[in-house]
Amino acid sequence: MDASEIVKDANLLFHMLDKMVEEVGEENVVQVVTDNASNYVKGGKMLEAKRPNLYWTPCVTHCIDLMLEDIGKLSKVRNALKKCIFMNGYIYGHISRVNMMRKFTNQRNLHRSTITRFATSFITLAQFHEQRNNLRKMVASQEWIESKSSKETSGKKLASYVLQVFFWRNVVYALKLSGPLVKVLRMVDGENKPPMGYIYEAMDRAKEAISKSFGMNDEHYKEAFEFIDRRWDCQLHRPLHADGYFLNPGLYYDNLKTSNEEVMTGLIDCIGRLTSNLQMQDKILDELEIYKNARGLFGIAMAIRMRKTKSPGIKFKCYSKL
Prior knowledge:
mainly alpha; two-stranded parallel sheet; 2 strands
């Protein structure tokens, strides 16, 4: 439907979403996902208040993109991105420069469009880093020296950036902070598997990867973690993500964090919200013991093999057929 006149107003947005839930049937709705803008947040919370048996959740892709935007404001990262964007624009501004660049990069491109604005910037930054030696060869080549570009002010600036040691140091710093988040973003936006059962763990692993890349010296990533935690805690972290983690056998049976209070709180919250029937709640809690202890169908050899090879939704369908 054309919602261009609706989405700018939280009340109108709420009524639209509520009407859609009514049409589908509240009993059939677990989650409503929207953008992260303030009007969507207000509308989503109004929907949750009226519909006590479903969740409103902000878009994970948008949330991670906002994390990347925040990280892009750090001075070293901003410096690297600014120079990279300039060089990318200059090279792709004329076909002769594009052809010369491709000659030195074995026909590889520097710019790669992706799902979000800031992810595109960081992925392009990664492409520049991958081709750094080839770019150095290009600006030192006779072909470049004899070209018109080498005599232009912008061309001289590009060559100086490519040869700057501290520019590449800033690039590495930016990639250490952004790389794990871009990886999560690709997983979330991919179509290989439903991401709900992986987001909680993926964000934890992303932060661990960032910490390890800096030798656990939080002086280098403390501010970036503040950006990540602020977005995660106030926008993205929802009981459904903790619940998805708990109900993912591929993660649950291997990870000690399954006894984490945060995970269990999310699980109990989901059970209480998705069904108000006390007998059903008790039955779910009883049957969870079968899952937690890998008894019954969860303990057979075939189910154990499938923990790592099938996404949670497919696993449970297979178990139900056995």
